[in-house]
Specification:
four-stranded antiparallel β-sheet; ATP hydrolysis activity; about 260 residues; single chain; Rossmann fold; 8 helices; nucleotide-binding; alpha/beta; MacB-like_ATP-bd
Length: about 260
């Protein structure tokens, strides 16, 4: 058991391998009077086959943490690793290869090419890399996200929820070591959002995928195995086996703590 800053005990994480790790990770923007500390010596682990949600108020550093962990932004101090690979030691070419081969990305914008079919959008990263998809794995991914009957459709023939499912399948198709999702349901209605979140959870439970998701929505966070809360660039709390009500209550508590400190 571990104890949060609010005196709440949480269960110890499962003893699985670490997919990604931040150690004393810092990110600073600007200098002098314009200096902003976005991340303040953050240390956190993301374990394999686990779904983690990152939450916090605007400006808390949650998106910055994800971007630094995914190699989309440089760090000012500390380290970030994917598997056994330290990101801060990689040059641009090696970092691009790592993002292509080991990391999956899902963003609020679907980022699909309108002239390609759903299947062509799913396999596009592998096509660019000159890699043939694993057909058995690809079929399993497509079945998991429920797109078997839509593979020949172009994005304008798909609903928003279906387009995001294509984006999820694209992120999964290359067998990434970890998948990062930044507000993946932000452009979806509640029903479509629930479908996409269910697919992310199933990818963890059925395919052994590791998912790290930034969200502001307690309902979305309740699909995760655990939630970590950031405020002022630091991790201030953690919740395992979350419910929407428990997440909302925890957010209110550290918001109140911030106002009175």
């Amino acid at each position: 058991m571990t104890t949060t800053p609010f005196g709440v005990q949480t269960a110890a994480p499962r003893t699985t391998a670490v997919a990604a790790r931040a150690t004393e990770l810092s990110k600073v923007y600007g200098q002098g009077e314009t200096r902003v500390v976005a991340l303040d010596a953050v240390s956190v682990e993301f374990r394999q086959a686990e779904f983690t949600a990152i939450m916090g108020p605007s400006g808390s550093g949650k998106s910055t943490l994800m971007h630094c962990m995914a190699g989309l932004d440089s760090v000012s101090g500390g380290s970030a690793t994917i598997g056994d690979t330290e990101l801060t030691t990689l040059n641009d070419k090696k970092l691009t290869r790592l993002r292509r081969d080991k990391i999956g990305f899902i963003f609020q914008a679907f980022n699909l090419l309108p002239t390609l079919t759903a299947l062509e959008n799913i396999t596009l990263p592998m096509d660019i890399a000159g890699r043939k998809p694993d057909k058995k794995w690809l079929d399993m991914v497509v079945d998991t996200v429920g797109l078997s009957g839509r593979l020949k459709h172009r994005p304008n023939q798909l609903s928003g929820g279906q387009q995001q499912r294509v984006a999820v399948a694209r992120a999964l198709a290359g067998k990434p070591e970890i998948m990062f999702a930044d507000e993946p349901t932000g452009n979806l209605d509640s029903r479509s959002g629930a479908e996409v979140l269910g697919f992310l959870r199933n990818s963890v439970r059925e395919l052994g995928q590791t998912v790290v998701m930034v969200t502001h929505d307690p309902v979305a966070a309740s699909y995760a195995d655990r939630v970590i809360f950031l405020a002022d660039g630091r991790i201030v709390d953690e919740l395992r086996h979350p419910t929407a009500d428990a997440v909302l209550d925890r957010m209110k508590r550290f918001d109140a703590k911030g106002r009175t400190s």
